[in-house]
Amino acid sequence: MDDGKKSKVLEVHGLEVKLKTDAGAVSLLEPIYFELKKGQILGLVGESGSGKTLTCNALLQLLNRQMMDVKGSVRLNGRELNGMTAEEMRRVRGKDIALIMQNPMSAFTPVYTIGAQFTETIRTHTELTKRQARDLAVTALEKMNLPEPVKLMKRYSFQLSGGMLQRVMIAISMCLRPAVVIADEPTTALDVVNQLQVLRELDRLRTEYGTSILLISHDLGVISQMADEVAVMQQGRIVEQAEVHRLFDQPQHEYTKMLLHARPRLSLRDMNQAGG
Ligand SMILES: Nc1ncnc2c1ncn2[C@@H]1O[C@H](COP(=O)(O)OP(=O)(O)OP(=O)(O)O)[C@@H](O)[C@H]1O
Q: Residue 122 and residue 253: Cα distance in Å, rounded?
């Protein structure tokens, strides 16, 4: 499909963040501009501390306004998010824009079962009865290829692996069908098998439901497989943005070239050989 004809779901215009200090404002995020079209995956890369997570938190209005000044516009399906009250954002988060974070353990509380938390989230955002929400949750877990979903609903987060929890989070997103999913290093804490499964399910969210995804990763391999377009961040600014093949084949900015060169070249075969 011609990308130019797809509708814009998320429009970020001049989003910037300044830290308020006694000595004056310190810029953490220089004005950034990007958009996400329906079903598009935008990869956000950059070394540690370049501002990727800060961008996520600014988009989701999760920054502490007493400490930070957030300017610019974040429009989700034409609706301005910047400046929304906490209550308004609570309604938007999860249902219209969801976050899949690096450490899924922190997204669940250890005192309630997975099922209780899953159905509660569904019921907060829909009119479904408890039973309907439960059935929907079980179906979503099944679709995520999680084994024995009915039993899984009765378990607690600490009884599940990181990869399983990550897939539960994606299953929740699947039920609520948010227009945008922000995935902040979703596979960093996982082993290779779980990484692949999580990436496959994220891709399914996009193909089956047309979800747009902002995929944050320092892993250029993941980005090259998943993203349509890539934005490169360095010291709180986007220094280069291009279609994925163009960025990998013809990087323009010195920092992008440096990132591509620094890519670990070790393959599974190298590791097996090294191990004898
Ligand atoms: N609450 C805060 N107070 C002060 N500085 C902050 C705060 N949050 C982030 N920063 C600064 O903003 C910069 C960007 O941090 P951020 O966490 O977004 O980086 P990142 O690219 O996500 O790194 P990583 O890959 O390690 O998660 C860093 O220099 C960090 O020190």
A: 44
